[in-house]
Amino acid sequence: MDIRKQLIILILVLLCAPVSAQKKEKLITLKFTNIPLSEAMPKVEKQSGYTFFYESQQIDIKQKVSLNVKNETINKTIAALLKGTNVKFEIDATHIILYTGKNNKAISGQPQNISGTVIDESGEPIIGANVMVEGTSTGVITDLDGKYTINAPAGSNLKISYIGYVTQTVKAGRNSTVKLVEDSKTLAEVVVIGYGTQRKSDLTGGLVSVDQKKLNMINSSNLMDRLAGQIPGLSVTTGDAKPGADQTLRVRGENSLSADNAPLIVLDGIPYNGSLSDIDPNIIESLSVLKDASAAAIYGSRGSNGVILIQSKKGKKGAPQVTYKGQFRMSQPQQTIDVMTPDEYITFKQDIARLKDGWSGDQLAPENILSASELINYKKGVTNDWQDYIFRNAFTMEHQVGISGGTESTTYMGAVSYLDQEGVVYNSAMKRYNINLSVTQVLNKWLTIGIQTQFIQRDGGGITPNIEHAVKQSPYGIYKDENGKYYEEPMDQSLIINPMANVNADQDQTRRNFFINTYADILLPVKGLSARTTFGYNYRSDFTGTYYGRDTKDGRTASGKASINNEHYWDYTWENLLKYNREFGKHRFDATGLFSVQQTQKKTSKSSAESFVNDDSSYHNINAGEKNKTVGSGLSETSMLSYMLRLNYSYAGKYMLTLTGRSDGYSAFGANNKYAFFPSVAAAWNIASESFMENAQNWLDQLKLRVSYGSNGNQAINPYQTLDRLHLTNYIWGDGGAGVNGAYLANDGVGNPNLKWETTQTFNVGIDYSFFNGRINGNIEMYVANTKDLLMKRTVPIMNGYKTIWDNVGKTRNKGVEFTLNTVNIRNKDFEWSTGIIFSLNRDKIVDLRGDKKDDITNKWFIGKPLRVYYDYDVDGIWQEGDKFTYTAADGTEKEIQKGAKPGSAKVKDADGNGYIDSNDKVIIGSKNPSFLMSMSNTLTYKNFYLSFLLNGTFKVTRELNEANIGSWSYKVTTKKRNAERYSDRIELQGFQSCFRLFVKPSQSPLKPNQDAATLLVRNHTQKGDKRTRMAKQDVKD
Q: What is the mean pLDDT of the chain?
């Protein structure tokens, strides 16, 4: 046995559990008497899985036949069926060919014109299917009606193929109709790869496609919510749960320290810079995520963080279809914060007074320990659950009306949708209006044009309550005064403002987005050569107007406060593609060339003022403000010029090679580095198609090994960093003199003409597998990404006249493993149950910073450690009475081990072991990025009904909790501060918990010995929600 065979066997053993390696031939049991052949053939097809093929002019399908077989082979069954007729037969892998003596092999060598029609499973003609005489180079394609005529010897084999369908080999016959069936969805699915499409089985790069079925698993009005847990290596997180909030997207972790790590978004072939929460998920056909260097290399300097390709729906030929989709949903807070009850709060205040001030007996009566405002409600027996005021049951209403259809030459799709979504936090809301239109027009055989356009308007909610203040409030605090206005400070002398203090402010938020994409497809007179030109334009405007009137806390303080912010953005992209696609026998070749131009512009303006005569004008008359008037504006422009060439080659569907190169020029980079070239190479070997795997082809559908290597760039920095940037200021000459404007070169204002792209070089190896006709399928990926020339600020000697400068320094490394397993557990006529499991492990680290092998403590960047870490003191317990609080210094003096420590304070760990606490005792506590992700989806389908659910888990990620330090404000040791003291602690999240408990130590808890540390219960911490602080229950023992 040669080495290659040994390798294949080893891979198979690793991929799957032992299974039967031989699929037995189906045995047939049938009995019927004297029925037409036309009725008998479907019965045989149903049991055997074979398809009959014959010429209707030669075979009399009305003649009567009989059959009585039990557990017989297909050969014996057909022989018995046709006994006594003049019909003969042959059987190949999937067909039973019927013929008579008039159409036998004796005359099969005579060339003649063979005509036929190719249709799909619904009976619709397939346009452009390839029809070839097997073993020759003779071939044609089907016309608009799916018809073909080819000169071929009668009885020869015709090979009929079309992307996305199972290739069929049939006997040449006159006026035959061939029905192509869709290929296994996991193998021959056509996926968007950027600047084109490709069969999934022919992919060489790391790409994952999500179809409409998977997108519908999660019912959300936000498109990215529907991707969570669906794609290995893709992380979707939300820092703000208000409606319409943008998510943070990461593909295979992070590579950059200072530049943006977000993937490039491409909508209908054009880079999209708008908010993904603006897009109506119901108009999306599919999404593809390009992950490795080979797949993303076609986007060059913007592809190092991955690429997400979004395809919207288009019209299909047929009668007009009008659809309506309506939804009504209700949401509520998944979990409120577990705060003290009124009785617990009284007990807590009494314990504080007893322990701090030595009070006892009648001194501890509520009348003596509560503030004046609290005492009013206490005597009335009135208590407030502040979370009832800031949270609410929220309702969402969504409607969409669509129309689609078309003729042979024109197809169209249009949709109008409306979304009215409330947030669970008071005043949070969003209204979204979407209009979408897609039209494709076939002008003639060589020219097709199309247009896709979207218009979006989104209106936001008002000022939301301060959630932190809500959970810090006393249950006896005053909510509203006698006039029905929010009481400013519910607990006197606490400096904790009413959480609803500013909710009456005027705030209007409007975002408009217009996107249009026009294209023309041209078939050139050279066989296999085509061209496409595409022009895309995107305009976006954002407006926010806010006014704090005298019925708000901030408005009363400033006698009215107004602000307006405007942003106008536009970009255009013009792309020209030239494609060449040919097949020569077993050789398939295609080439794609690109010339692209892009330009962007962003304008901003803002103004604000305070102290207005009255509130009547809201923010519409800012000039009337008497104090603190400010005006600002800005303009930034960029342009980009690109060239790209991609070559794909495939031999017999076994060996595949992809070569890609892209050159980008970008205006934001230095004069010495405007252009960069990003190459990649990828190869794939479909092992399952090899002849030595013949015995496994009954159960092995695909076993493909993929390898790729290439480089991508990251250009995500602000424009003008390569130029010297002057800062404006105002000078006053002399006492009472008038101010004049001036300019100066700031410490960070010097440009770097050598600034260039970050470059990520990625090596990727993957295995795609499929067994038992797609019942089990998936892939395994392993990758290493090395990023160099990091865009970051470098410190230079101040004697140069400036302190920092942007430069390309530093290196990072990102590596990981991804695993996908999809199974069809049960499949029968009416019911199907399928499962998907995804696992992603990612490790990132800093390899070098500025070339001096030194850590950057200020930015918390440490060589050899993850890119995003928590670096702080590690709490190691609670100081107790009787502990030693001082140490003897080298000069013989006694000094504090931990400054300010006393019994009950958090004890900081002496990390360096020198006997005292200083900044050198800070340690890396954990990474902000998860160690690995895992998800499992299940879909159950019964006839026209389906049920789906998804479990999505984040493992080994450190998060920061900012908690109310009750002891601090209850002891009134921070009365000069505007807000209550907070302490920070870090926790490690693991698993799929929907409910879990954490025990967190307080940083400053002045408790006596034998007193319990604060116990913090955090429930449903993994829920999406606003960042909240919590009041912990504390049990205090005497």
A: 82
